[in-house]
UniProtKB/TrEMBL annotation:
The modification 4-aspartylphosphate is found at D585. Pfam families: HATPase_c (PF02518), Response_reg (PF00072). This is histidine kinase. Signal peptide: none annotated. Keywords: Coiled coil, Membrane, Phosphoprotein, Transmembrane, Transmembrane helix. It comes from Sphingomonas limnosediminicola. It comes from the Bacteria.
Length: 665
C-alpha cells in the first residue's frame, strides 16, 4: 500500500518528468524552430547568391551584346571607308572581347547543365557569326571595294546575328525565372519562420533561452544581409572600375591607331615616290627606243641626201637611188611617229559605222599579197555581226599588223584563222573592259607561241622578239592604243608550241549612219578625183618652211595658193577675197585650225571646201575634224594632190576620208 510520502514523491517525479518532457518538447520545438529559421535563412542566402549570380550573368550578357554590336558597327565603317588601321582594329578587338566574355559565361553557368547547353549554343552562333563577318573584313582588308559591302550585307541577311541576340536573351530569361522561384521559396520559408516565432512567443520564459538564441541568429542574419548588400556595392564598384579600364584601353588603342595612320601616310608617300621613279625609268626606256629607231632612219635620210648632193652632177640613176633611199627613211620615220601616236592614244581617229565582216572580206587580196602563198588563211565570219563605230583605216592596219605578226611567228608557213564573233562581256572580263556588247575580231596562228615572260611584255613599246631590223616593237602597242581609244580592249591567249590568238574587242554601236564597207574603196577613188586647175586656195601654216614647200607644191599642181602664218592673218585675207579651198594646220598658236574654220563658216556668205593638215592632234580636237578631209604630216606632193582633189570634189553626202598616201603611211 502506497503512503502519502510516496504519492508526493511520485507527484514530484511526475512534475519533474513532465517538466523534463515539457522541456524536451520545448527543446525539440526550439530546435525545430531553430532549424526552420536556419532553413529559411539559408534559403534567403541562396536567393541572394542567385540574385548576385543573375546580376553577374546579366552584366556579362550585356557586355557580350554591346561588344558584338560595337564590333559589327566598326566592321560596317571598315567596309565603307576601308580604313584598315582604324575601324578594322576596333572590330577585331571588340569581337575577341566578346568571345572572352562568352568563356566567362561558361564559368558562371558551370552548376547549371541547361544554362551550359545554352552557352554552348551561344558559342556556336558566335563562331558562325564571326565566319560570316570575316568574309567582309577580309574583302575590305584586301581593298576589294564593293565586295566588302556585299559580304557585310549578306551577313546581315543570314539571321545569325538575330539568333545570337535571341540566345543571349534566352539565357537572361532563364536566370530571371530561376531567381523568381528561389525568391518565392525564400519568402515561403521566411513566413514559416515568422509563424514559428509567434508560436514560440506563447511559450514565453520557457523558450526564453531559445528566443535569445533566435535573436542572436536574427542579428547574424541581419549582419549577413548587410554584408551581402556591401558585397553587391563592391561588385558595382568593381564593374565601374572595369568600365574605366575599358575606356583607358580604348584610348590606348586610339593612340595606337593614330600612330599607324601616320605610318601608313609615310608608306603611301614612299610608294608614290617609287611609282614616280618607275615612271621615269619607263620614260627613259621609251626615249631610248625612239632615239635608236629615229637615228637609224635619219642616218638613211642624211646619208641618202648627202650622197645625192655629192653625185648631183653624176648619173641620174644613181642620184635618184640615193634620193629614193632618203625618201624611204623619211617614210619609215613618219610611220614610226604614227605608231607612237596610236600607242599614246593621240592619233586622230575618224570613226565611222563599220561592218567588220565586209571590211575583212575586202582585205582578202591585200592579205594574200602581204602574207604570201605559203600562208593558208581561213576566214570565219559570224552571221549578222554587229556594226562598230571605229576608224576603218586604223582597224584595217590593226588586222594587217596582227596577220604579219602571225606570219612571222609561223616562219612564213602555216595556217591562220581570222574570225568575227558577237560577244557579251562582264566588267573586267578582258583587261579593263566595261560590261556590254562587243564585236570580237581574232587572228589565230599555229606558230611558236609566246612564253609567259614574253606574253607579259607583249604590249610594251619597242619590245620585240624579232631579229634586228625586222620590227620596231610598236605593232601590238599601236593596236593596244587604237582599241582603248575606240572604247575596246585587246586580249592575248598563247601557248608555247601551239600558237597564239590575239583578239580585238570593239563596242557595238547604235549610231545611225551609213555602213562603211572597206577603206580601200574610197582610197582608190581618190586617185581618180579630177583636179580643178586655177582653184584659189588659202593656206594657213605657222611653220615657214612647211608653208613654203606646200605653196611650191600647190603651184606645181596648177593651183593659185595664198599663204598666211596665223589665224588672224587668214581671217583678214579671207574677208578680202573668195577662196575655193582652205588648207589649215590643226595645231597653231593663238587660234587652232578647227577654231578658224568654225569662225569662217559662221561669217562667210560663200561655201568653201576644207582640208586639215596635222602631225599631232591635241586632246579634244579630233571631234572637230569629222566631216572634213585630213592630211597627215609629213606628206608627199602626190598625197597633197589627192587630198586637195578629194576636198574640192567632196559633197555633203560623202563620208569623211583620211588622205594618208605617200610618206604618211
Amino acid at each position: 500500500m502506497i503512503g502519502v510520502g510516496d504519492e508526493e514523491e511520485v507527484r514530484f517525479d511526475w512534475r519533474r518528468g513532465g517538466a523534463a518532457v515539457a522541456g524536451l518538447l520545448a527543446a525539440l520545438a526550439l530546435l525545430a524552430m531553430i532549424f526552420l529559421v536556419k532553413f529559411a535563412n539559408d534559403s534567403r542566402e541562396r536567393a541572394l547568391a542567385a540574385e548576385r549570380h543573375t546580376y553577374e550573368v546579366a552584366l556579362v550578357v550585356r557586355n557580350v551584346s554591346a561588344n558584338v554590336s560595337r564590333s559589327e558597327a566598326a566592321l560596317a565603317r571598315f567596309v565603307l571607308d576601308e580604313d584598315v588601321k582604324g575601324s578594322g582594329n576596333i572590330y577585331a578587338s571588340d569581337w575577341q572581347l566578346a568571345g572572352f566574355q562568352i568563356d566567362q559565361l561558361s564559368n558562371l553557368m558551370r552548376t547549371s547543365p541547361e544554362q551550359l547547353r545554352r552557352v554552348a549554343e551561344l558559342r556556336q552562333l558566335y563562331r558562325k557569326r564571326g565566319e560570316e563577318l570575316s568574309l567582309a573584313a577580309r574583302a575590305a582588308l584586301q581593298k576589294q571595294g564593293d565586295a566588302g559591302i556585299s559580304y557585310f550585307y549578306q551577313a546581315a541577311t543570314q539571321g545569325s546575328g538575330r539568333r545570337l541576340d535571341d540566345k543571349l536573351e534566352e539565357i537572361i530569361r532563364a536566370e530571371r525565372s530561376s531567381l523568381r522561384s528561389r525568391i518565392e521559396a525564400s519568402q515561403f520559408f521566411s513566413e514559416q519562420a515568422s509563424r514559428r516565432s509567434d508560436y514560440l512567443s506563447w511559450i514565453g520564459f520557457i523558450v526564453g533561452l531559445g528566443a535569445i538564441f533566435l535573436g542572436v541568429v536574427s542579428v547574424q542574419a541581419l549582419r549577413q544581409n548587410a554584408a551581402a548588400r556591401r558585397q553587391i556595392e563592391s561588385e558595382a564598384e568593381r564593374s565601374e572600375a572595369l568600365e574605366q579600364a575599358v575606356r583607358q584601353r580604348t584610348q590606348e588603342l586610339w593612340e595606337a591607331n593614330q600612330a599607324l595612320k601616320a605610318e601608313a601616310a609615310e608608306r603611301e608617300a614612299a610608294e608614290a615616290q617609287l611609282r614616280q621613279v618607275q615612271k621615269m625609268e619607263a620614260v627613259g626606256q621609251l626615249t631610248g627606243g625612239i632615239a635608236h629607231d629615229f637615228n637609224n632612219m635619219l642616218a638613211v635620210v642624211v646619208g641618202g641626201i648627202d650622197l645625192a648632193l655629192r653625185r648631183l652632177n653624176g648619173p641620174r640613176r644613181e642620184v635618184m637611188m640615193h634620193l629614193n633611199n632618203a625618201m624611204e627613211g623619211a617614210t619609215r620615220a613618219a610611220a614610226l611617229t604614227r605608231r607612237l601616236l596610236s600607242f599614246a592614244r593621240s592619233e586622230p581617229l575618224l570613226p565611222e559605222r563599220v561592218d567588220s565582216n565586209e571590211l575583212i572580206g575586202g582585205m582578202s587580196d591585200l592579205l594574200d599579197r602581204t602574207l604570201g602563198e605559203r600562208i593558208r588563211i581561213e576566214v570565219d565570219r559570224a552571221p549578222e555581226t554587229w556594226p562598230t563605230y571605229v576608224d576603218p583605216h586604223q582597224l584595217e592596219n590593226a588586222i594587217l599588223n596582227l596577220a604579219v605578226n602571225a606570219r612571222d611567228a609561223m616562219d612564213g608557213q602555216g595556217s591562220m584563222r581570222i574570225a568575227t564573233e558577237n560577244v557579251k562581256l562582264a566588267a573586267n572580263a578582258v583587261g579593263d573592259i566595261r560590261a556590254g556588247d562587243y564585236v570580237k575580231i581574232s587572228v589565230t596562228d599555229t606558230g611558236c607561241g609566246m612564253p609567259p615572260d614574253v606574253l607579259e611584255r607583249a604590249f610594251e613599246p619597242f619590245f620585240t622578239t624579232k631579229p634586228v631590223g625586222k620590227g620596231t616593237g610598236l605593232g601590238l602597242s599601236q593596236i593596244f592604243g587604237f582599241a582603248h581609244q575606240s572604247g575596246g580592249e585587246v586580249g592575248i591567249d598563247s601557248q608555247v608550241g601551239r600558237g597564239t590568238s590575239v583578239a580585238i574587242y570593239l563596242p557595238r554601236t547604235e549610231v545611225a549612219a551609213p555602213l562603211r564597207i572597206h577603206p580601200a574603196t574610197s582610197a582608190q577613188r581618190a586617185d581618180t578625183d579630177a583636179r580643178v586647175p586655177g582653184a584659189r586656195i588659202l593656206l594657213v601654216e605657222d611653220d615657214p618652211r612647211v608653208c613654203a614647200a606646200t605653196v611650191d607644191a600647190l603651184e606645181d599642181l596648177d593651183y593659185d595658193p595664198i599663204a598666211c602664218s596665223s589665224g588672224a592673218d587668214a581671217i583678214r585675207v579671207f574677208q578680202e577675197q573668195v577662196f575655193d579651198l582652205v588648207i589649215t594646220d590643226v595645231i597653231m598658236p593663238e587660234m587652232t585650225g578647227p577654231e578658224l574654220i568654225r569662225y569662217l563658216k559662221r561669217t562667210s556668205p560663200h561655201d568653201f571646201a576644207v582640208l586639215f593638215v596635222t602631225g599631232y592632234v591635241g586632246e579634244g580636237e579630233s571631234d572637230d575634224l569629222r566631216g572634213h578631209e585630213l592630211l597627215r604630216k609629213p606628206f608627199t606632193v602626190g598625197a597633197l594632190a589627192s587630198a586637195v582633189s578629194a576636198a574640192l570634189a567632196r559633197t555633203a553626202s560623202e563620208p569623211p576620208r583620211t588622205s594618208a598616201a605617200g610618206g604618211a603611211g
